[in-house]
Specification:
The complex is a heterodimer of chains A (about 170) and B (about 190). Chain A contains nine helices and no strands. Chain A is globular, with a radius of gyration of 17 Å. Classes of the chains: A mainly alpha (about 170), B mainly alpha (about 190).
Chain lengths: ~170, ~190
Amino acid sequence: MDERDLAQRAAQGDREAFGGLVECHQAGVYNVAYRMLGDCREAEDAAQETFLRAFRAIRRLDPQRPPGAWLKKIAVNVCLNRLERRGTLTLDDEAAIPASDPGPESQTIQREQTRQVRSALLALPPHFRAAIELRHFQELSYAEMAEALNRPLSDIKSDLFRARKLLAEILRKT
Amino acid sequence: MMEHLTEEQLNEYLDNSLDAPELARMGAHLSDCPDCRARLASLQTVFQALAALPEETPSHELTSSVLKALPNGSSGLGWRLAFAMQAGLSIGFLLLFFPFLASRIAGILPGLTAQLAVPEVKFPNPTGFHFSPPVVPLPFPSHPFSLALPVTITHANFSNWLLLGIAAALLFIVGNFSLIFHNTSRTRK
């Protein structure tokens, strides 16, 4: 069944259909949360919170829009709230990224690069992370990002550009 | 050569957010300016690094835990609908029968209505200015069985309004309790 059909049935209170949506998008939503929070356990909690919020709000979902993009926008906001609640604990976040396992050299290098990029992401302030997530991983336009985060377009652009600059500096140092 | 490109221009260039003439101007500048090319390359490494991030898989299936955590019952729409319908029916019923009830209650319970009537209160009035509250005619239609009287709020029929309000509240409360009871027994099954 098409995911839009699932969303429509879920909006009518069909829990099984909503379960189908969760199954389709759990990995995507989890990855949003993992990139923004940097901790697997918390990312799973945030993914669950995202789906619960989505269930309560699913009647507001525009049937023409893909549910996946909508769920990921909710996930970004859930993670932003969590980051704002806990403050930006960049050192702990960085420590939460697992060190690379031993293995073939090319794999080890790749894992190390992944770890560095994730750590660099987690060194960013919450709004910068959200901007990077929405632009680079959700591929939203500036206007769509402003709508998703309910912030002025100029702030969104400023956050995104500063986030990239900061990321470039961090990655250069590592 | 124009001045160095701004951060915003470089970012918008990489985001494909510029129009064609602007893109052409920037292309021309970049071909002549090694500084701006270096800044652009630095930003491009960020794009590449982010694009290369692999997707992770959650450690366990989220579907079952999400479904378990969903609130019971449907989405609450049914409840809201039932509530609105019940309120509407109660109000409609009362509006329809008020003229009949008002005259009957006044006839049947003269003692009670007299007791429930709000007594006139005399307040001291040092200003000497006298104000009489207006009698408000209500827009109820005449009763179809011609038992109705024109309805106005006065001290005499205030008690009827009070009784009617109590009846409406009782109807509403009893109706809601029966709905709640029905829903509870259904979810227990």
